[in-house]
Amino acid sequence: MAANPHDHLVLSDVSVTFNGFHAVEGLNFSVGQGELRCIIGPNGAGKTTALDMICGRIKPTSGQITFEGKVLNNLEEHEIARAGIGRKFQVPSVFSELTVRDNLEVSYSKSSGVLRNALIFGRGADREGLEKLAEFVGLEDYLDTPAGHLSHGHTQWLEISLLLAQDPELILMDEPTAGMTVHETGQTVELFNRLKGKHTLIVVEHDMGFVKEIGEVISVMHQGKMLAEGMVSEIEQNPEVRSVYLGSSGIARA
Amino acid sequence: MSKRTALQIATYGIVCLAILLVPSFMDDAFILNKYARYLVLGILAMALSLSWGYAGILNLGQAASFGLGSYCMAMALKLRTVPVHTGKSGLPDFMVWNNVETLPWFWEPFYSLTFAIFAGVAVPVAFAMLLGSFIFRGRVTGVYVAIITLAALVVVNLLIIDQQRYSGGFNGITDLAQLELFGLTFDAYSSSSYYLIAISLTVSLFFALAVTKSKAGLILQAIRDHEERVRYFGYDVARFKTFAFAVSAGIAGFAGMLYTIVMEFASPTFLDVPLSLSVVIWCAVGGRQSLLGAALGAIIVTGMQGALSESEIFLESWTLIMGFAFVMIVLFLPKGLAGAVESLVDRILPKDRTAPGKSKAAADQCGAKNSAGGP
C-alpha cells in the first residue's frame, strides 16, 4: 500500500495468529487525519482484534502498524497511548470503585510520569474542565458517585468522556452504542460528527443504522481480511458484502 | 480540599496528638517502652496498607524491609559500643567469637550514623525497586506477587542467619549503644524514645497520606481497580506499582530502625515469616484501605496480645482468643475497623462532599462506599 502523507494510521499487511488460528491475515488499512471511519463485519471478522493490535493489547505476528510515521509494533500499551491513541472497550471499562470525578481525573493524563504525579495535589486542577465534560455527557449529577453504581448507558457515556478527557488524536471505539437507547445512539452520532476533523476516529459497530447515519467511508472486514471499502450506498450494493452478511438482503437489516 | 479530606486530616491529627500526649499521663518507663514498640509496629502496618490497600499489592515480605532497616541501625549502634570482648580495632564481639580478623568492608560505612540512617531507608527501597521492577515489568499479579515476596523474605532471612560471622546469625546483633542524635540520648526505656517514635509515626502517617492524596495515589487506586485500563491512558503501570512498593518498603525500613532503638537489639525474628504474616492480619483488622486504620489495627492487636499473654487467666488461651477475634472481623467487617467507622461517618455526614448545590440524585446514589479511603 502506498504511503499517503495524509494517512494518520496505516496498517500494512498485518497478520496475527493465535495457536495457528489466523484471526487477522494480511490486513491493509489506512485512515486519514481527522477522518471518521466505521469498521463493520460479521462476528469473528477480526474487527476487535484489529483495534487490539493498534492499541498494543495484542502484538501482530507480522506486518507493520504506523501512526504519524511512528512504528507501533514494539511499543507497550502505555507508550502507544502516549503517542496519542485512545481506546474505548466493547465492555465498558471504567474504574468502578472510583467516583466519576476520580475516573475523569485519572483519564486526564497529559503528564504521565510517577514522580510528577506524586507532586500533584488538590485533585481537579482542571476542575471546571472536568465538570464541563461531565455536563457534556450528562453525568454532572453523578460526579461523586462510584462508577460501579452507574447504569449501563451512563457507564458507556462515562467511558466516552474519559476518552474526551484523555484527548488523544486517534480514538478507537469498540461498539460505542451497545446497550444505548435510540435517543442515546442519536446523541452519539452527533458527538462523533463533532469530534471528527479534530480527532481521527475509528468506530467498530454492528448497528447499521448508526453507521448509515454517520455516513462516512465504511470498511468491511471478513475472516481477518479487508473485504471492501466505500460509502454506505456502495457497500450495500457490493455483492461480496451481501453474501458475507448471510443472504442478499442481510446487510440492510444487520 | 473536600470536606472529607479535611475530616480525615483532622482525625489523623487528633489521633497523633493523643499518642504524643501519653507520656504526660504515664511515666512508667517499662510501659512506655511497650507502647513505643506497638507504635513502631503501627508504622509497619501502615506501610503495608499503602501497598496493599491502595495499590493492591499484597506484599507478604514486608518484614524484609523492616528487618533490613533494623539491621542497618543495629550495625551503627554496635560500632558505637565500648567493646568489651573485642580484639584489635574495636571489632564487634560476635565477630571476635567467630574468628573474624578485620571489620568487613560493608560494616565500615556504618561508623557514620548519618550513613546508617540513610541506608536504613535506602537499602529496603533499593531492594524493593529491584524486586518490584522484576515482578511488575513481568506483569505478575495477584497471589503470585504474594508468593514471590514471601519467598524473597525467606531468602533474606536465611542469608542473614547463615552469615553468622558478619550478622550475628540466630543471635542477631545485641548489646548495642544508645542512639545519640542532635545531642539527645534515646534510652529505650525513657520518654525521649517514646517521643521519637510518636513523632516518627506522625510524620510517616502524614507522608503516606500525602502520597495517597496526590494524583499518583489516585492512579494507584485506579490500578488496583482495573490495572489494564490504566495502561491505555498512557501510564506506565509497572512504574507506578514499583513506586508504591518502594515507598512502602522505605517506610517499613524506617520503622525497622526505630524497632532496633526500642528493642535494643536486631534479630532474624524481625524479618521472619510469622511477623510478616502478622502485619497482614493487623492491616486486615484495622482496615487495609485506611492508613490510620492499619496503624491502629497493629497497635490494638499487638496491645491486646501483650495484655492477654501477660495475664494469668489467659496465659494458655490468648492465641485462641486473638484468632477468634480475627475471624470475626474478617467475616463481619471486611473493610476492617476503619471501614466500619467510615460507613458510620457516611451515615451521619451529608454526602455532598465537594459539589454543593448539585442535585440530590448523586447523593442518593452515592451510598456508603467511598474508595478513597476514609479516616
- Helix-strand sequence of chain A: EEEHEEHEHHHHEHEHEEHHH
Q: Kindly report how far apart the N and C termini of chain B lie.
A: 15 Å
Spell the H/E element sequence of chain B.
HHHHHHHEEHHHHHHHH
Give me the CATH architecture of chain A, please: 3-Layer(aba) Sandwich
Q: Biggest interface and which pair forms it? A: A-B, 44 and 45 residues
What is the highest CATH level, the class of chain A?
Answer: Alpha Beta
Radius of gyration of chain A: 19 Å
Strand coverage percent of chain B: under 5%
Shape of chain B: globular
Main-sheet strand order of chain B equals 1-2
Could you give me the name of the CATH homologous superfamily of chain A?
P-loop containing nucleotide triphosphate hydrolases
Strand portion of chain A = 15-25%
- Indicate the percent of residues in helices of chain B: 55-70%
Distance between the termini of chain A: 30 Å
Provide the domain count of chain B.
Answer: 1
Q: How many beta strands in the DSSP annotation of chain A?
A: 10
Secondary-structure-based class of chain A equals alpha/beta
Give a quick set of tags describing it.
heterodimer, A: 254 residues, alpha/beta, Rossmann fold, six-stranded mixed sheet, four-stranded antiparallel sheet, 35% helix, B: 375 residues, mainly alpha, 15 helices, 2 strands, globular
